[in-house]
Specification:
Radius of gyration of chain A: 16 Å
Strand content of chain A: under 5%
Shape of chain A: globular
Number of helices of chain B: 4
Number of strands of chain B: 7
Largest sheet of chain B: 4 strands, antiparallel
Distance between the termini of chain A: 34 Å
Distance between the termini of chain B: 27 Å
Order of helices and strands of chain B: HHEEEEEEEHH
Largest interface: A-B, 13 and 13 residues
Number of helices of chain A: 4
Number of domains of chain B: 3
Order of helices and strands of chain A: HHHH
Number of domains of chain A: 1
Structural class of chain B: alpha+beta
Oligomer: heterodimer
Helix content of chain B: 25-40%
Chain lengths: 146, 271
């Protein structure tokens, strides 16, 4: 996976969120919204990463109804048949991991449980560190024991 | 002679040479212009990519957390500062003065120019104007690249009704197109790589709130770059010679006889 497209990011964000079994806990449309928000945050923190898009940060729409069967390509009408799935996300390769954490942070922040808040903060710190620090784990506390 | 490669050849198109320099035969495009007989002249896009690409990659290796877009932009800033402050990039453009015509718009990248006509770059200053006999002609450039002749010839000096002259211009890098590296003369990286690396890295480290921010080291790196700028400027003035006693650069800082017209220059000392 080269993390070129919306679908690449959504797929790996679901791995981080442990949400790979249908029906999903986090809807695809909510993760696409989280991607949009992560890109807005990139524009704020590291505008040089959106050099070509400073005036219009890339934003993606997701319509479940657009996920249709493509004959000969897929056997069902799931996410990867949606045209948004294959849209390009213009971020340099070395910063693409940060975007995945940014998506996860926003998704977790909307959950209700306290434990998710902690995870959301952890993801957000990683996201911001990857954009502003050399070490992505800078300032983070080690995991608590049982 | 045939047993040995010819490493030094006559520059037939030079300003002391015969007519082909100004003619249509082209003075600087010959394949054996610079070095070994039959060798390809060390200019052109391929060489540019090799030299500048190597410099670019070297900086990317050292600057963790820097985006490629930012490195490219700062590379342009650094080259721009280098050429602006050293005046090492010269192009001597042949042209014709018309009777009673004072202003001329100069265009860089003339295939018949002497010096670094390519890449085209941007003209930022006028170093001097001489006629075909290397006699200096008083001129200046209040607004680059428009050249002003102090006393345009009143009468035509050749059958075409014009006066043949050479205008030596100072150039710097042009803004690169999106996603591209700036284009500079082929010798730049070979000669000044050490200082250019420090310049780019210094400017990057001086940025705030970035993974590579380091104000202390940034200042140190930038100072090293400025040393390179000073070295480059002196080398340009001395015509890249060792131990030269006289300033070789077209003497843009003094007036000879036309006092008060800023640039009264000749390139006779240069050649």
């Amino acid at each position: 996976m080269t993390f070129d497209t919306v679908g690449d990011y959504i797929s790996d964000a679901r791995v981080l969120l442990q949400d790979r079994i249908v029906p999903y806990r986090y809807s695809t449309i909510s993760l696409v919204a989280a991607l949009n928000l992560a890109l807005l945050e990139v524009r704020r923190i590291r505008p040089d990463l959106l050099w070509d898009n400073l005036d219009q940060v890339p934003s993606y729409d997701w319509n479940d109804a657009m996920s249709v069967l493509v004959p000969g390509t897929d056997g069902n009408a799931d996410d990867d048949d949606n045209p948004t799935w294959t849209q390009w996300v213009p971020i340099e390769q070395q910063f693409r991991t940060a975007i995945v954490y940014g998506i996860g942070a926003h998704a977790l922040a909307r959950d209700q449980e306290d434990i998710q808040d902690e995870a959301a903060n952890d993801f957000r710190t990683t996201f911001e560190n990857m954009l502003t620090e050399v070490r992505g784990s800078k300032g983070k506390t080690p995991p608590r024991g049982p | 002679m045939s047993d040995h490669p010819q490493y030094w050849q006559q520059w037939k198109g030079g300003p002391t040479g015969s007519a082909p320099f100004l003619g249509v035969t082209g003075a600087v495009t010959g394949p054996a212009f610079f070095g070994v007989s039959g060798a390809t002249a060390p200019t052109g896009p391929a060489d540019q990519d090799t030299h500048m690409g190597k410099l670019y990659n070297r900086i990317r290796l050292e600057m963790s957390g820097a985006s490629d877009a930012m490195v490219r932009e700062v590379l342009y800033d650094t080259l721009h500062e280098f050429f602006n402050d050293t005046w090492t990039w010269l192009e001597t453009i042949p042209g014709q003065l018309l009777p009673s015509t004072q202003y001329y718009y100069l265009s860089a990248g003339n295939p018949m120019s002497i010096g670094d006509a390519f890449p085209v770059g941007v003209i930022i200053a006028l170093a001097g104007v001489v006629d075909f006999n290397t006699f200096p002609i008083s001129a200046d450039m209040p607004t680059p690249p428009i050249m002003r002749i102090q006393w345009p010839p009143a009468q035509p000096t050749n059958p075409n009704g014009t006066l043949l002259v050479y205008a030596t211009c100072v150039k710097t890098v042009a803004k690169p197109s999106l996603g591209k590296l700036p284009e500079a003369p082929w010798w730049l990286v070979d000669t000044y790589q050490h200082w250019l690396i420090h310049g780019v890295m210094g400017k990057l480290k001086l940025q705030a709130n970035r993974p590579y921010s380091d104000a202390k080291m940034g200042q140190l790196y930038y100072n090293v770059f400025r040393q390179g700028v000073n070295i480059g400027k002196v080398r340009a003035l001395r015509g890249n010679t060792v131990g030269a006693q006289a300033w070789q650069y077209p003497d843009q800082w003094r007036t000879k006889s036309q006092q008060g017209f800023v640039v009264t220059v000749g390139t006779s000392q240069r050649w």
